[in-house]
Amino acid sequence: MRPVGLPEIPEQTVVVARAAFPKGSLAIRVRDRLSGVFADEPFAGAFGVRGAPGLSPGVLSLVTVLQYCEDLADRQAAAMVVRAIDWKYALGMELTDTGFDASVLSRFRSRLADNGMERVVFDRLLEHCKDAGLVAAGGKQRTDSTHVISAVRDLNRVELAGESVRAALEALATAAPSWLAGHVDVMEFAERYGPRVDGWRMPSSKTKRDRLAQVFGQDALALCQAAWAADTPVWIREIEAVHLLRQVLVQTYLIRSDARGRQVIRKRDADDGVPPGQLRLASPYDADARWAAKGEDLFWMGYKVHLTETCSTLPEAEAEAGRMPNLITDVHTTDATVPDVKATAPIQQSLAEHGVKPAEHYLDSGYPSADLIAKAMQDGIRMITPVLLDRSTQAKAAEGFEKNAFTINWKTRQVRCPAGRTSSHWNPVKQHGKDAIVITFSVLTCRGCPFQQQCTTSKPGRRMLTLRPRELHETLARARAEQKTDTWKNKYALRSGVEGTINQALDITGIRRARYRGLPKVRLQHAFSATALNLTRLDAHWTDSPLRPTRTSRLEHLAYQLTA
Hints:
Elements: H1 11-20, H2 26-34, H3 57-69, H4 74-83, H5 85-91, H6 103-114, H7 120-131, E1 140-149, H8 157-175, H9 177-181, H10 186-193, H11 206-227, H12 234-237, H13 240-252, E2 253-257, E3 263-267, E4 290-294, E5 298-311, H14 316-320, E6 328-335, H15 341-353, E7 360-362, H16 370-378, E8 382-384, H17 393-397, E9 407-409, E10 414-416, E11 425-431, E12 434-440, H18 443-447, H19 452-455, E13 464-467, H20 470-482, H21 486-492, H22 497-509, H23 519-542, H24 554-563
Parallel strand pairs: 1-7, 7-8
Antiparallel strand pairs: 1-5, 2-3, 4-5, 5-6, 9-10, 11-12, 12-13
């Protein structure tokens, strides 16, 4: 690579582009205002220093961002490089330049993902916006997440077992055909695993499907035994598809010895135990995709992305004037099983590292915990978020005495109940790796209490409370009391705008569907999607484009008129 940055724009390209776009276009304005963002130097570590000159990574990164701005496939983006005059202007190309092959974009993304450079362009644009005064530390920001469907098809457990064998056979047929031919019956396996394994080709009866699942398991076991034999080259079992086959075999089947010492393999059922969701493979073609559920209606295989953006309390008229655009400040991608609360600390740490730490951080109820709220406050971030309410039996039923009905004396380590009686035990413990305090009232104390039926339903007939340490307990108590006020509710309404950001990201970049396989490349996709979203908003800011009004059908408009 020769770090030269974006090339100078040929004079003829300038004349034609200005004539064709007298008011300009997004690509033209990006080149005029942000050419320094798309430099070559930040990518130097991903390229060699010897060999034939390659295409400029700054140019390829700009093409990729424009590709996401218009939600194009690689072939479509490569075609736009050839035929779109404003793209030629942005890339500094002659009008007669024939561009490059679409596969160049795929190789460029692989190079970035392999070298951990998924966020280079996003971070450089964020730095530019900081220098321009469009984002800064100390303001208000909001975060929300959405599901991302993987780029591979959904498989049930039997399909997963069969397709994993097929994927390993395909990889071995390419990398070690001679070895494969010497260890399996190629003709038999070609008949069974030639076409892809799916439910449409499986037997209709349950007995035959169970038998087929056992055959898949036996074939997987035979292939793994051959790959891990002492005389087999080590690199055979280092092939990713073979390694994943072994994991699927362990996760899906049980191998036992019968009374005669023969190996017997059968599919695991619920009683045998299955791996937890964060470890369970869902596809042999994407080792990072996971199954997850949200509520009773949403069930998907793939990933989850968290978007954080700046937000303002300016009146709507001033927001429409385009004074300060809301810009994405962080994009955080995980597999689908990671709960939102696990993403809070990494997001806030990333914001601090990039110099855009907010003073107020607006989040939904999935992100906070007492520890996180206290830690964020120590770091200068106030989390505006609804905390979970008391989850005790009494609180859920809205009957009896909740925790806040008890008076806690932290100095004497005693708790007084609503009846005026005092606890007998104060036991500091560890629960799920966190400090907690278990408060116990004596059976003799509770037995004669007139409020016993309202207070506890335990068999011993005594009340127990579990508290967090004093600082965390008081933090939760203050947050629960505050979130019931109208002032807090009006303030928290600012968070709802991030839902529109998620929807805009879906409309512009298709962020809810992974284009690529594997977590590194999905992270790259989301980083470029966030960059494209920021460019779209910056372009609206540069051109003073007002916010478009929400479209309403004529029937809805008539209904509003009749209601009024």
